[in-house]
Amino acid sequence: MSIEAEALLQEAKESIEAAQNYRSELQQRLHGLSQARKQVRGSSSQAREGLKRHFSELQTAVARLLTERLSVLLSEVDVIEQDSVRPLDDCQKLIEHGVNTADELLREGEVAIRCGLGEKEDKLGSFTKKALQIQLDSLPEVPVLVDVPCVSAQLDDSLLYALRDRVSRHGSVSSHPPVQIEELQERPGSVLVRWCKVDDEFAVQDYRLQYRRSVSGQYEDTYIGPEQEFLVLHLDPHTDHLFRVCARGEGRTEWSPWSVPQTGYTTLAPHEWCPGSEGYILSSRRNIAMRSDSSPSKAGVLYSNAPTYFCGQTLTFKISATGQVDKRDSIGVCVGCEGEAESLQRDQAVCISTNGAVFVNGKEMTNQLPSITLGSAVTFDMEVVNLLPISNNNNLSEGGNFKLRVTIGSGNREVVFDWLLDQGVDCLFFGCSLAHPGWKVLVF
Q1: Given CB 3.0 to 4.6 Å as the disulfide criterion, which of 164, 176, 323, 379 pairs with 436?
Q2: Are the beta carbons of 98 and 140 closer than 8 angstroms?
Q3: Structural element, H or E, at residue 317
Q4: In 3-state terms, what secondary structure has residue 57?
Q5: Global pTM?
Q6: What's the pLDDT tens digit per position in 95-118?
Q7: CB 299 within 8 A of CB 435
């Protein structure tokens, strides 16, 4: 094959590869468009169903309220009518009794007048005596109309106008939620979720974060508050979880629409304390260690179950209970486990004491952090600083100068220093040594 033919063949192969890549990129974009269309269609369908369900429930509730109010008002009319008619009925009975008595008296009077002379005197005397007993000049009082109840219903048309005004402003439809998830960052046994406000006109009072397993289950609240990030703990590694966030405006009670759910997961095993250490009791997930009184006089260092801390991560110790302070107390990280050590204040370790003192390779620094108290959170951040090549082929395991830049934070203060090791490490243990019972430490 000539050189020209080989060149043409090579050019053709490159064109075919470029066409394949081009087609693959276009197919990915088609898939993205399909997902976008699916999101628009699906969210629109959910919005319609939500609106129909909400307004149907409102109609039922309003009809029930109006029916109940009508029943109450009709009952009030019935009570007023009964109470007002009762004395009128009593008065009517009294008058009717008087009319009957008068009719009977009239009949007796006419009989007395028409009777014969022999008995007229007796009849007239008896009639006159009976007429005096009836008290013909005494009449019952009949109430005038202005004193009798005239029942009426007062109906304020302003309710309809107010209802029309409220209904016209009730509910809203938006094409984008006011907040969206910005970043999902994997951490050991957890995911750090960060979100941001995308609607500048929406004044946020609180955010609400929920998550669930992507395959099943229901969303559950994990955070409500003003912050824009939260570390969701106790997640199983290599398991997809869906996260979503919404917001509540200032002075309002209802929540905004949810953000587009984002899938996140962690491939990092959770931080765990090592079980079986004398003087310490662990939680079921082994992420909480409590200094017990089973060995009040002696308890060494409680280490992590494995070297699970990697540079570039943030390691956090949360103090949920406190005990008596001792100068040997320490919380920090180390290169390896020394079973006989009584404290992390030793070589190949950096730590902070409960009184705020910082130790590097067993030596106390001049800089000091606030004392550790109930609710304190102590953070460790490390990054590799290479001043000199570790070896000819940059293999960490072959020894040499290895420097880590360490940042320890506690309260609203932090100290930064360089930690020089005689060999390279890519993962570290963490540990704590607490002399007295009562302390409880959560690690994440």
Answers
A1: 323
A2: yes
A3: strand 314-321
A4: helix
A5: 0.62
A6: 888 888 888 888 887 877 877 766
A7: yes
